[in-house]
Amino acid sequence: MPMPWFLLSLALGRSPVVLSLERLEGLQDAARCSPGLSCHLWDGDVVCLPGSIVSAPGPVLVPTSLQTELVRRCYQETDCDLCVRVAVHLAVHGHWEKPEDEEKLGRAADPEPEEPRNASLQAQVVLSFQAYPTARCVLLEVQVPAALVQPGQSVGSVVFDCFEAALGTEVQIWSYTQPRYQKELNLTRQLPDCRGLEVQDSIQSCRALPWLSVTADGDNVHLVLDVSEEQSFGLSLYWNQVQGPVKPWWHRNLTGPQTIPLNQTDIVPCLCIQAWPLEPDSVRTSICPFTEDPRAHRNLWRAARLQLLPPRGWRLDAPCSLHAQATLCWQAPGRGPCQPLVPPLPRENVTVNMALEFPLLKGHPNLCVQQVSSWEKMQLQLQECLWADSLGPLKDDMLLVEARGPQDNRSFCALEPSGCTPLLSRASTRAARLGEQLLQDLHSGQCLQLWDDDLGALWACPMDKYIHQRWVLVWLACLLFAAALFLLFLLKKDHVKAAATGRAALLLYSADDAGFERLVGALASALCQVPLRVAVDLWSRRELSAQGPLAWFHAQRRRTVQEGGLVVLIFSPGAVALCHEWLQDAGPAPGAHGPHDAFAASLSCVLPDFLQGRAPGRYVGAYFDGLLHADAVPALFRAVPVFSLPSQLPAFLGSLQGPRGPRPGRLGERAEQVARALQPALDSCLRTPGTAGMGRGMGPEAGDRT
Fold first, then answer.
1. Number of CB atoms found within 10 A of residue 543's CB
2. d(CA 550, CA 557)
């Protein structure tokens, strides 16, 4: 649903308040006074002749201020005109003069003077009223009793009813006395139109006016005119500019109700709408609904254009007045901020569509005009580098600011992004490093003078020769940096490759039965997703057959240790029995070793590492919950961490991945993933009768699965 954009009701002030007016009956003008005063209105109008200012012979009445109020003068119930009531506030001006004989005798003034000072004061007050096409002057006689006569004090007011005026016109009111003892008072007021007053039913011209409203639905703005089908009216859109007469840029004669779309980009704060019935001497209604709209102010700023006027002039073109300040600024290449030249050049207020002069000697492509406007909480900025088209692109020149003091004392600083850096200073900026060279360039005439007065000057010094020297150093630094990066890449290549595929892990286990092999296979597959580079005999049966279990284990162990990986000993009842057999803590277990039993073959190399203390850092142990008790692991192998799976999976994975592993939260997520992968195979093993007490013998299903 379209929502009202702006309540198009205008009163004497800026607030959109609808005024209810007092009603006066009859045609006669009238005057009334404050209590204690007496007043009389002369019949008919008088000639407005203020005359010259004369000296007051003593205390006199003078007008001090004017007030206006709108009322209705009605001839019948529905036949009224707008009328302006004027109140004139009066005060006593001047003092009683001393008698001449008292001054000659040199006597002091009596603290309570005798009257003639008890006399009342009388004044003739003139009110002059002008509102096109009406002009009137009336005369009011006012008398103040002696009791109220106090020099410099207000005595009250006199009220005149009333001056008739047309809706929407501008009225001017003057007041003075005859004779005139001071400058006349004046007051100017803009009267509201029909929309600012509750007069639609009493003023005939208001009943025929087109009723306007502006609606907005998103970016779509419409002007809605609600009139009868047969009514004809004129409609005009114009920019209400401060300078110059009103110039409509759109005008139509229309009939009946209308909905007219407005272009979003045409909406600016000074856009006004005027409508009137196509009748002789009709009242025109004007509204300016966009004066406080933020979008209108943004559109105005986008429409504003800076124009260069040769040789050193410029102008801001805009459809509306702008409250903005302008200054010259220096724009260095590289799209950094444009630095205002304040000081030494001051900011100045901008008048739109008026030519202004730059206080410059020469133009430069880096010199720009920067204008800043603040409306409500919106900061708007406009910048144009006016000489860029005629003098070419921005130059990498250094702007030097010369300050002149007494006794020909001069100092120089260079304008940089950090501020104005004094030359020959110890700052770590480009201007400070090249301070001596820049001064030599200035004294040798290589710099262009842009501005000059008694307080200082501006100089633009070329930096081309210094830029070439700098680029040689930059290229050399880039080559050294590229060489260092290439060397670092070669040194880290192997490490990066290993880190991308994960740490190596060699799983050794005893193939107790097919269910246990499936459980180990599930663990190996889950560890590959961690990611780890897993080696297990289940996935290398062809190599085992070709090389033999012992040779295969030696090759895998050497590779794992060299790459900084770990050998994982997975203990099961069969593995524990094999360990005891090798340690000769028990008799040989029944049954022969399988043809691919890498665990049995590896014990000849694993046991010496544990007996000689080389196992920590190379080996870890593991067993599955429910298949083996922790106490069943031989004491020799407890020299390395032994983990229960899946209950201790986070610690197990942390040990496998080492210090470069993921953060604890991520490690917990991976442990949950491995646990979910293990649980079905572990449950299957636990459901098999006699699994917990199983030896190392292999059934017929533990054969070659390649």
1. 16
2. 11
Give 307's contacts (C-beta < 8 A, 6+ positions apart). 314, 315, 316, 317, 386
| Phi and psi angles of residue 372, each rounded to the nearest 5 degrees, phi first | -125, 135
Amino acid letter for position 483: A
Q: Measured between alpha carbons, how far is 211 from 213 in angstroms, rounded to an integer?
A: 7
pTM: 0.44
Q: Are 353 and 243 in contact (CB under 8 A)?
A: yes
Q: Which two tokens stand for residue 264?
A: 């979003």
* Distance between CA atoms of residues 110 and 576, nearest Å: 135
3-state secondary structure of 303: helix
Return the SS3 of 79.
strand
Kindly state the helix (H) or strand (E) to which residue 229 belongs, with its residue range: none
Nearest alpha-carbon partner for 429 in 460, 398, 468, 404? 398
- Work out the average pLDDT over 44-48: 89
Residues 534, 505: contact at Cβ < 8 Å? Answer: yes
Two structure tokens written together for 237: 């859109």
Nearest residue to 138 (alpha-carbon basis) of 184, 89, 86: 86
Average pLDDT over residues 655-669: 77
Q: Is 169 exposed, middle or buried (0-12, 13-18, 19+ CB in 10 A)?
A: middle
Place 19 in a pLDDT band, splitting at 50, 70 and 90: low
The closest alpha carbon to 517, from 684, 655, 671, belongs to 684
**Residue 107 in contact with residue 166, Cβ under 8 Å?**
no
SS3 629: coil
DSSP 688: S
> What integer is the mean pLDDT of 255-259?
85
Of 8-22, 230-244, 407-421, give the lowest mean pLDDT range: 8-22
377-383 long-range Cβ contacts below 8 angstroms, 24+ apart: 378/294, 378/297, 378/298, 380/297, 380/298, 380/301, 380/324, 382/301, 382/304, 382/306, 382/324, 383/329, 383/331, 383/338
- How far is Cα 206 from Cα 143, in angstroms, rounded to an integer? 41
Rounded Cα gap, residues 35 and 691, in angstroms = 120
Amino acid at 444: S
**Stretch 245-271: mean pLDDT, rounded?**
83
12 touches 171 (CB < 8 A): no
DSSP state letter for 108: P
State the DSSP code for 631.
G
Long-range contacts of 329-334 (CB under 8 A, 24+ apart): 329/367, 329/368, 329/369, 329/370, 329/383, 330/366, 330/367, 330/368, 330/399, 330/415, 331/366, 331/367, 331/368, 331/383, 331/385, 331/394, 332/366, 332/394, 332/396, 332/417, 333/394, 333/395, 333/396
630 three-state secondary structure: helix
10 Å Cβ neighbour count for 138?
21
Radius of gyration from C-alpha coordinates of the chain: 51
For 110-124, what is the mean pLDDT?
65
Give the integer Cα–Cα distance in Å for 356 and 361. 15
For residue 16, the model assigns a pLDDT of 39
In the chain, count H helices and then E strands.
14, 36
With CA atoms as reference, report the closest residue to 351 among 321, 306, 309: 321
- The answer to whether 222 and 214 are in contact (CB under 8 A) is yes
Amino acid identity, position 352: V
Is residue 667 over pLDDT 50?
A: yes
Per-residue DSSP letter, 266: G
* 93 Cα distance to chain centroid: 57
